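Office hours follow-up: a student asked to see two folded examples consecutively, so here they are.
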Amino acid sequence: HSRNNDLSAISRQDFYGRRIARLLPLALLVCFAAILVAFFSTAGTARDFTLQSPNSALNFNLFLSLPLFFFNWARILHEHIAPGWGLQWDIFWSLAIEEQFYLLYPFALRAFGKSFKKMALVMASVIVFGIAYRFWAYATAPQDFWLSMGGSPSGFESIAWGILAYIASTQPFMNRMKRLQVHSVIGLSILFALIVFWGTNISSVSPARIFGPTLLAIAIAVGLAASTKSNRVQKLPKFITTPGALCYSIYLTHPLIIFVLFKIFGYQKPQLFIPLVFGSAVLLGLVLFYSFEKPLNSMLRRKIGSFELPKGPLRRLINVPIKWPGRHALTDKD
């Protein structure tokens, strides 16, 4: 958002290009590595947990759902066969929800981005629909955790809270918040998130499954918005901002790290195994981000930005910039 002062002026090609450049290269690399490891590794606890669950085949349904971003629904429908395909594949449920949301998000920005009130109303509608969806899922199938938590409306709600908190942080009334107050909000939000996370068992068969994700999303969204506001006032140190850059690498690669470390050390001492996984994931995230993600991201953004489609319906739909956009895209309307 910060790349456009007027949210309604967003370039769709710029937006989609950044999403593709950010997400696709590492996802392809990790999937390719996981397929190789699954093919050449022997059956056992580590492989069953991370790469291929018993009774689950690495089949066409799985690999079609990943690039088309409906894996979360494939995961829900797969539940009667086996509880997932394996951790390395199952983590893509959240990425699928995120990209479903972002397919339509630029259109909402173009339509309502000039007005904070209109955007807030749109995000509030998404939030209400997400809560209503979980209520329906809980009432329909209280034992089905994935139907409640993995359905797209539930995930859309969490994203909407983040967007709502961010656009609120850009409004003039937030300028009255002093720096100390901003940091206090960050600390309290993180504390609140931890309390909700540990105190609310959202996997249990209880109404907590309906509102637990909402409380957690609010806490995280407010904390991130306060952090963004604080970063505009005074540049935050790198030890705070760097984890945000590495989180995608850590998220996608940690199942493979679990597989390798489980093969080497087993799981005899979880109090040592978990920190070892976390530390290894951070180190691998640093390597991948600076040697693979960042340079490839920049190259792909330039390539996508310089690509021109012929004039016609598709060009008007995507709103292709006339040339690679800088901070403000020049579009056909400009």
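And the second, which I mentioned at the end of office hours:
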Amino acid sequence: RLTIKTKLAAVFGVVVALSGASMFLALQNLGHLNQTLEGIVNGPAARSLQLKEMQEDLTGLSNNLRAMILSSDAEALTEQRQRLAELYTELHADAEGLIGAFTVEQTNIDMQTFMETLESYWTVSLQVQDFAEQNSDVEAFAITTSEGSAAITALEETMGSLIDALGRRLANGDISTLPAYETANAMFLKASDAFRQQRNILLADDDPAKQDEWLNDYRTALADLAPGFAQLMRVAGSIEPTLVAQAQTDHENMVLAMDRAVEVSTQRTQYNANVLADGEGATLRSEAVDLLQAMVDRNDVVLEQATIDANAVYEQSRMLLIGLLVGSALIALLAA
């Protein structure tokens, strides 16, 4: 039979052994749990944050491009273009850094596809930015409201003076001035009509079909102006040579200003920017958005599973330690 001293020594030895085993297993499981958590933080969790930042940058690319199309301020356009370049550089670098970083191979394939789609989208975006910076609608209106308005005002003043001078001659009984008077009045109206047609073209820069229609009307009006002023020179040149010569010069200046405005307007850069952005640009952006979302969803599944696995390790370690503690207590109780 064992003495009390021997029993106490045996129980103490078993308890110490179980405590040592508990400590060893605790440290081992703690290391495994720490490694698992570190893998989550530096793996799927970090990649989840990166993917969501990429989604924000992609949205920023689209929003800034749209703002650039709508802007008419040269300084704002320059700032928006610079911001777009920064966003693209950051987004491209993030995508490049994540290729091959995922544990799911399909996500690595999708990231490569995303980067290629992003590059194609950026190529389209650069074309849209070029169109937006040209700002043809704003430039055309600037020309017509400065050069054009000055030219038509000068012509109308000269023609008004010429009509008045011819009218006085006619009122004084000089019937020979009647053809000149009628021609001057007709050309005054035709010049005003041509200028109106030019303005119509500028107003229709977002409607190619309507702009082409009004462009034909404008060309018809111009074609009627040139021989009309030549006729005015023939019938009134000897009567009021100074005013007729000035009217001819004013007419030529007006046509030059109108043609400049029309040439710029028919470039339709804002319209082209919208068509390109809403067409090919929108398609590529949608593809990029879908790819990113698919990668986010897939990575969230990986993150969720990693969290479940880490929790399972924790629960397993906890139950094992509780079991060892309970066993130690039972042995001590039985020995007593």
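Two things to take away from it. The two ends are 15 Å apart (CA to CA). The chain has a mean pLDDT of 84.
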